[in-house]
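Tutorial, part two.
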Amino acid sequence: MSGPVLAAIPIVHFAGRYRGSLGVDFHQHLGIELVLVTHGSCAVRVEARRLVARPGEAFILPEEVPHNQEDVGDVETTHANITVRRADFSNQARVIAMPIDGAVAGWLGQLADMQTQYVPAAVRSGLTLAIIESIAQHEQHAARQRLLHPGLVRALHRIDEDHLAELTVNDLARVAELSPSHLTALFRSHVGCGPLAFVQRQRLERACRMLRNEYVSVAETADACGYADANYFSRLFRQTYQCSPSEWRKQQRAS
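Running the prediction step on this input gives:
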């Protein structure tokens, strides 16, 4: 699924960090508020609902809607208030996963640090755009997965966990808690190919991304994508893209 036009740059009203245990009284903001919990646990009351978040989770709170924050002991959060200019980003109150050691949490922390520095508004907005785009893509991906068979989701997650693992259909079937034939049928129906062909496709797509970097050799690309034999990788690449990795790289440079 393609995303929205990236020209819809968000506006950053403020960003910062909070540490305390007394909570925050009811208030509201001009824009949507992102609140990542980095330590402790807290809840917010918004739109007659009570939402709870723990470390690695973030509140998304709607603009101009009163909400509070109820701290459970000592709490630390990183937050930002923004106006989002994209129609497909929900303004509804919710809690999402935002791992503290992940890229999105890191960007949010950088945005908070910029609050006390002179940083051009375009830089802050660009960083915020990366945050919003990542959240939107994650939510779209999660919505699509909710439509899939749980066994297929488990198999796809196993493949995502380690794209270099030498998995068999039986390995994936055990993870999926399905028969190999049932899992293969689900892959063909929802993904368009069998499990092992899907793994191969993922590896070759990763190889294409790496080949765009001219400082990475074809042999290094092959090894990083799970192919110990660079010649085998090149033959497989040619079968898929009708050209060698080196030729593909030249074509990308020319275009």
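The chain is about 45% helix and 25% strand. In part three we will examine how such features are distributed along the chain.
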